[in-house]
Amino acid sequence: MQAQFHSIADFFHMGGYGFYVWLSYGVAYASLAVLIGVTLTRKKRVLKEIAAKAKREERLAQHRSAKE
Q: Which of 10, 18, 59, 60 could anchor a disulfide with 14, C-beta 3.0 to 4.6 Å?
């Protein structure tokens, strides 16, 4: 099997298209990182909201049972 590039510099240059190739990889990975970050942040917020709602419902149920 023969190597496609003769040096590491040739690999990064990619026949003059290296800038576009590596830029596209960078944009793709940055987009994925932002997506993961936003998803994790929203997940934490939703879980906090669910816990707060469960606490409110529990307090209401206790208050209603105390009235009876």
A: 18
